[in-house]
Specification:
It is built from 20 helices and twelve strands. By secondary structure, the protein is α/β, with parallel strands linked by helices. Strand 2 and strand 3 form a beta hairpin. The longest helix has 18 residues, at 401-418. This is Fmu protein.
Amino acid sequence: MTSEHHADRPHNTGRPRRPGGPGYGRTQDRDARTGRAPRAGRPASDPARQAAYEAIAAVHRDDAYANLVLSEILRGMGLHGRDAAFATELTYGTLRALGTLDLIIGDAAGREVSRIDPPARDALRLGAYQLLFTRVPAHAAVNQTVDLVRAVAPAAHGFANAVMRSISETSLDDWLTKLAPAYEQDPVGNLAVVHNHPEWVIRAFSEALGGDLEDTARLLIEDNQAPVVHLCARPGRSDAIELADEVGGVPGAFSPYAVYLNGGSPAELGAIRNGRAHVQDEGSQLVAAALLAAPLEGRDDRWLDLCAGPGGKAGLLGAIAAERGARVTAVEVAEHRARLVDQATAGMPVTVLPTDGRTVGRDPDLPEEGFDRVLVDAPCTGLGSLRRRPESRWRRKPTDLPPLTKLQRELLVAALRAVRPGGVVAYVTCSPHMVETQVTVTEGSRRSGVEVDFVDARPLLPAGMPHLGTGPTVQLWPHRHGTDAMFLAVLRRTS
Ligand SMILES: C[S@@+](CC[C@H](N)C(=O)[O-])C[C@H]1O[C@@H](n2cnc3c(N)ncnc32)[C@H](O)[C@@H]1O
């Protein structure tokens, strides 16, 4: 091993790195130790790769969300069109495939990736992704990566060159054969490496899919695809067919409000800018509409959204409330998210309460038995929307579950107290994890102190929708419905 193989170790061992501190400099920064600019007169790498590197580094360094940080970076660098699309593919693809990329890099480098200096490590991940998962020619992937490493971790460029060349000598299939355990001996371990998901997530998916590993594999494959952007045509303001014509999209398969967008930036659409539509997964539209489709006797004009931020479902409920003469109270505990709900529901009969949803009965605006329909779109692991949040499968941990499920139960209990006898509560998560779905619903309703009945949620979804199971709850799936894996339970308070 040459000395360069060791040159990428942290220089300031023992001290945590600050964001923007040495070793994490932006590609155009000067080298923190030598003060020299990287390869004077020559860009570190092309702008799309540079943007992708910055985004990946920010996700790992600052716990940033890829979608938010990438759009900021693209804006800051003035990247549009093909460059922006390439940067997005590189960022999302690298973050999704992280577990497998790290195994391969670790093998090629002869050391754990945790022992590679973070800037060099992120550049190598980006490079390995190009080599193994894209049609970028190998020489371009290697050279661009080495140039990038020269800029962000100058001492490691020789090491990076050796690792990239070693990775490029073997095809992805051969790497997977070498590093994945045999399916017959360890099916979950095999799927984890082959389809880029943590094992605990695969076990959770498999449990929710009745232990069917072939079906689970189909879900994992779907999770690795870039999702189609769905719009929601707001009732009373727009119509899905007209909107599809206007934006060059296609009306959705299930939700009467859904339009599938054929690429392009939704933020630039007139319909989004003037509040006739919003971006929202079709599954989210379906579960919000299901709450309003549940039969109800008596009063039906006081609706509550107990976890409203950033306001997607509140926007749909508010638009329908305007048509039906109802009023929505939208509760959101995080102030900045409550402001987003305000913006999302401008001009609708919606009152936003920036408060904790568990204060039902203690807050005069959240009286017990004060609402006819209540939505609890509970905070959750988000394992059902991994397509949209490429980093989250590696960031989430099983230890996230106990505090989240406690909060979910408490919010469901609050919802069951807020609804009047005879009224309905929809409990929704964008996670299919059974602990967040079935277990929370069973435990929450048991602890609420009120009597409830399950309402069969299947007839509350559009007629003819396939794969809705045996009820009374419904689990949607990316590989079956093209939606996020939304879970829906509808409960009627009977006492
Ligand atoms: C899954 S998100 C809701 C998404 C939203 N319904 C939509 O469609 O845009 C859950 C939300 O619950 C909020 N939240 C968490 N704890 C809460 C609490 N105790 N009371 C009210 N909101 C809470 C989170 O800040 C987060 O915005």
